[in-house]
């Protein structure tokens, strides 16, 4: 066999080998934001063993102008995935049943906590460049529960001897409350002389028979107390037992639990 034939054969074999080994280039995977929606049964903001995923919850992505760009529905295990690129975006649940609300956010364990803020129900702003972050969402049963306590609850005083009590409004529910008010009506033999508290606007209205009204419009998050309201009172009766009832209520949202909305102050005069 001539050298020219051998050369041509070797070149053909080399070309065949290169062609056979060539692998077509694959497109880079599209960035995807993922997460899980779960039932936070103990309302601690952290997913724990036994807390199941929640199916059929819609998670949507929005641009800064609130334009929706994509949405996905959670599967049986509570997982969702949204293909996104660029940004910035925010995520928010859509059409959540009224009986449900979101759990306390960002408690510290980013791998297991809930990443959607109270109030807005949104995540922090993010971009998918080159990859997307992960956002989880815990859901709880909605409960609106604002409670009131007075301390001390019993006081002994003489006629004309002023004393003070402190009122504490607590959010024992699962929903941030967009404002609270405290009120108390006239009690014969007991005069309200003043009421003050950080973040509270209070007035004592003599024309309404010593009607006390205090209002705070700052958000009141679950598991927290508002600053105390200090109320000064003066007995005007010579003697006797007088009971004054203070009441608290939240506005802009519906109350679910009523028995703890009132706090009773008993004053023994004499």
Automatic annotation (TrEMBL):
List the GO cellular component terms: extracellular region
Task: Classify the main location.
Answer: secreted
Localization per record = Secreted
InterPro entries, per the entry = Ig-like_fold, Sdr_B
What GO biological process terms does the UniProt entry carry, in alphabetical order? carbohydrate metabolic process
A Pfam family cross-referenced in the UniProt record is SdrD_B
Record-annotated SD-repeat containing protein B domain positions: 36-126
Q: Which UniProt keywords apply?
A: Secreted, Signal
Signal sequence span is: 1-22
Q: What's the protein name?
A: SD-repeat containing protein B domain-containing protein
């Amino acid at each position: 066999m001539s050298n020219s034939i051998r050369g041509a054969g070797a070149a053909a074999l080399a070309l065949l080998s290169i062609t056979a080994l060539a692998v077509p280039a694959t497109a880079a995977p599209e960035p995807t934001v993922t997460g899980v929606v779960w039932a936070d049964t103990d309302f601690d903001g952290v997913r724990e063993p036994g807390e199941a995923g929640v199916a059929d919850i819609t998670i949507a992505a929005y641009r800064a102008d609130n334009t929706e760009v994509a949405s996905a529905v959670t599967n049986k295990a509570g997982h969702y995935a949204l293909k996104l690129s660029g940004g910035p975006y925010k995520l928010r649940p859509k059409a959540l049943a009224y009986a449900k609300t979101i759990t306390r956010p960002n408690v510290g364990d980013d791998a297991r906590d809930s990443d959607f803020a109270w109030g807005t129900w949104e995540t922090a702003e993010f971009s998918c460049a080159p990859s997307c972050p992960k956002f989880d969402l815990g859901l709880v049963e909605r409960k609106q529960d604002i409670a009131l306590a007075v301390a001390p609850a019993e006081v002994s005083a003489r006629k004309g001897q002023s004393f003070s009590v402190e009122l504490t409004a607590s959010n024992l529910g699962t929903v941030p409350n967009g404002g609270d008010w405290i009120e108390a009506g006239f009690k014969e033999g007991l005069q309200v002389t003043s009421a003050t508290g950080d973040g509270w606007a209070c007035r004592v209205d003599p024309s309404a028979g010593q009607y006390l009204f205090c209002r705070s419009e700052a958000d009141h998050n679950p598991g927290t107390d508002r600053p105390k309201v200090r109320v000064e009172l003066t007995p005007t009766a010579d003697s006797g037992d007088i009971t004054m009832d203070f009441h608290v209520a939240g506005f802009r949202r519906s109350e679910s639990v009523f028995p703890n909305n009132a706090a009773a102050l008993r004053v023994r005069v004499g």
